[in-house]
Amino acid sequence: MSATAALLVIGSVGMPAATADVPAADAIDLSAPVYVRTGKGPQSVATGDFNSDGVLDLISADSQTSDLAIVFGLGGGTFREPVRLPQPVGSSPKTVVVSDFDGDRRQDLAVTLGTADVVNVLIGNGRGRFATPSSYPAGDSPGDMVARDLDDDGDADLVVANLRSDDVSVLLGDGEGGFAVEARYPVGDEPTALDVGDLNGDDVAGVVVANIVASTVSVLIGDGSGVLDLVADIPVADFPRDVILADFDGDDQLDMAVGTNDTMVDNRDTVSVFRGDGAGGFRGSRSYQVLDQVDSLTAADFNADGIVDLVVTTGYGPIFSRKGYVSVLEGTGGALAADPTTVESNSFPRMPTSPTSMGTATLTS
């Protein structure tokens, strides 16, 4: 089987997902999307092999129906119709993540509920079914979430951005599907997005958090036991919507990209890339203009040249008449290309017109 990188873009209010295959070639071409129907009002998408057939599946957190929907893969980048999970997950599901929380090599789910202030965890049986959710308290209005091992015990933990309580929750996994009582760490005003990675070369995960009202990114360094220490609040352009860690300049140290809604001039907004210093800090920044209303960022090597690229979803206009765009900032090994390649999603009859989430996957054929 051959592997193909794919970009996954999720639209709002009943719109389908679009997957754009990116061939192993010099040019990045997103002009031929494949449309995949998800649940209604998808807020986020994640990938995994939920029925153990060796083929990638999709799962979406759907706000209109307050549930999760699985889209089983058929291989070659094609998918079945969505199947709603019978288990109620609660109102306003926001972010769904996939990991093995109980150590049985089968993929499980965790989802944040923005109005219930909890994280629900669903253990998978490897045959496409999941147990009744177990609920774990988080902060006020939990949204973005990442599953990663923070305490170096080999078990997946959860880090959650709590929009209204201005903090992040850390829930340490026990390796058997359960989680300890949350620990809270203050960050800036209204954290809206986060990412996790080794910021200082000690093989311990740290966290960066975009604070949309404070217009800062909080940097928290981990101590290897699951405890986080706030070491910096980095000023960024106004209203950061997303933050992502990747090695954009090829020096084997994580850099940080921040997408902001900072200006209405010429319908342009900004993505800023801060270079990591390998010691937990970030120095300088280089800004790139993209279209208005940045929604989400994702990073991967989309053209198989060994260099990380950055993709940005944006939308412009009122919520029910917004035009959606996908912009690619191609990596050069030292910086990103100055001029993004932009695709207007409305040029495709069923492309999401209001992108809300994005991710990457490797599809097999």
Describe this entry's structure for a reader.
The protein is mainly beta and 365 residues long. The protein has 2 domains: 5-9 and 33-186, Methylamine Dehydrogenase, Chain H (7 Propeller), CATH 2.130.10.130; 242-346. 0% of the residues lie in helices and 50% in strands. The chain has no helices and 30 strands. It has strands at 3-11, 17-22, 33-36, 42-48, 57-62, 67-71, 73-75, 78-79, 83-84, 93-99, 108-113, 118-122, 134-137, 142-148, 157-162, 167-171, 183-186, 191-197, 206-211, 216-222, 228-235, 240-246, 255-260, 268-276, 282-291, 294-300, 309-316, 323-329, 341-344, 355-364. The strands form 8 sheets. A 4-stranded antiparallel sheet has the order 3-2-1-30, with no helix packed on it. Strands 4-5-6-9 form a 4-stranded antiparallel sheet, with no helix packed on it. Strands 10-11-12-13 form a 4-stranded antiparallel sheet, with no helix packed on it. β1 (3-11) and β2 form a beta hairpin. It starts with a strand and ends with a strand. Mean pLDDT is 84; it is low at 12-25, 317-321 and 346-356.
